Amino acid sequence: MSPSQHVVDDRANLTGTNRFELLLFRLGANNESGQSELYGINVLKVREIVTMPTVTAVAGAPKYSLGVVQLRDQVIPVFDLPAIVGCKLPAAPTLMLVTEFGRTTQAFTVESVDDIVRLDWNQVISAESSGTSQSLVSSMARLDDTADNTRLAQVLDVEAILQMVTPEKDRHQVDPKDVGEQITLKPGSVVLVADDSFVARSLLEQALKAMNIPYEMVKSGREAWDRLNVLKAAAEAEGKTILDKVSLMLTDLEMPEMDGFTLTRNIKQDTRMRVLPVVIHSSLSGSANEDHVRSVGADGYVAKFSAEELASALRKALSKLK
């Protein structure tokens, strides 16, 4: 096995420990404050960091597009990330991040790359908790896990950014025809959904409504786990099981406080909760992540975002209850 493959496997294995690696970078001075802030993105979404190549401008390109570049026989779009988040570079960009997530490949210009840090998801605060909801930031990462003088990095909501730079006619939409026949759950039960991206939650809500599925939405793995325990206790008090309250857990992987892998493992290791089907819905892909999905006992995995594939995964997981 090559050294680079060892690095890839080592990073992927972090997903089983509620830890992850965050790539830290800067985007120049903020247009409002004039300060240069730290931003971050999960390393698993970054394919490579390259010196800025020649970009070919595209006629009629959408806002924030700089054009396209060719890398290893692949033509990919390049976006002005500093402008997207409201920053300005002091000079022409010299670096770009090539990212892969949500079935897409694209590049974003940055001012500089600072570091790669390993963090526990407990060090990450959701956007809602930090007062930055409905923004391009999904969460805030505490880089120094101490009470005093903690450095913060803004973890960018790449799904919101991708939605923002995609022309409206090409954005993900949920067509009721794509989800097929409506799905009927046990009366009184819901699908519990956990995702920290407001864009992803909006799309999931559209899909679940199109399937006529009652649902409850939370914003982190920790919230989902706490809610499941409340519902389990309520069910037991009524002489019922968790399945009388929740028919399925639909969870993202990357979430503040507790990731989807840890949430799934907790569910499957609980003797009274392990019957609950779990489907993971994530913009992270690749064989290593799919192997982890199987190892923690998830009942399904679907990459973001296809309403048709999501509906199929839900039907398949729910069919195991019959």
Which tags fit this structure?
seven-stranded mixed beta sheet; five-stranded mixed beta sheet; 322 residues; single chain; alpha/beta
Walk me through what this model shows.
This protein is of the alpha/beta class and 322 residues long. It contains 8 helices and 17 strands. It has helices at residues 3-13, 81-85, 158-165, 198-210, 221-237, 260-269, 287-295, 307-319, and strands spanning 19-30, 36-42, 46-51, 65-71, 74-79, 87-88, 95-101, 104-110, 112-120, 124-126, 137-142, 152-156, 190-194, 215-218, 246-251, 278-282, 300-303. The strands form 3 sheets. Strands 1, 2, 6, 9, 10, 11 and 12 form a 7-stranded mixed beta sheet that branches. The protein has a 5-stranded mixed beta sheet with strand order 3-7-8-5-4. A 5-stranded parallel beta sheet has the order 14-13-15-16-17, sandwiched between helices. α5 packs parallel to α6. The longest helix is centred in the C-terminal third of the chain and has 17 residues, at 221-237. Residues 1-8 have low confidence and may be disordered.
Q: Report the order of strands and helices.
A: HEEEEEHEEEEEEEHEHEHEHEHEH
Rg estimate, integer Å = 20 Å
Question: What helical percentage do the residues reach?
Answer: 25-40%
Note the total helix count.
Answer: 8
Spatial shape: globular
* E-strand count: 17
Class derived from helix and strand content = alpha/beta
- How can the largest sheet be summarized? 7 strands, mixed
- End-to-end gap: 44 Å
Give the mean pLDDT. 87
What percent strand? 25-35%
